[in-house]
Amino acid sequence: MDQFSKHPLYRKHNIDTAMSSLWDFYKAKFLPLMLISLVMSFAMQYAATFINIKELQTVTDPMVMIAMLKPFIVPILIISVVNLLFTTILQYYIIYNPLSSENNFFVCLLNSLKYFIPFLIIMVLLAFAGSIAIVLGLLALVVGVFFSILYIATIYLFILPVMMVEDGSIGHTISRTLTLTHRKFWTNIGWTAVFIILLLVISVIMSGIILIPFTGNFIKTLMSPDNASKMADMTTNPLYIILSAIVGALTLPIMPIFAAILYFNGKANEEQAQTITPQNPENTRVRVEDLYAKPYADDHPDNPEKKD
Question: Average pLDDT of 282-293?
Answer without folding.
Answer: 54
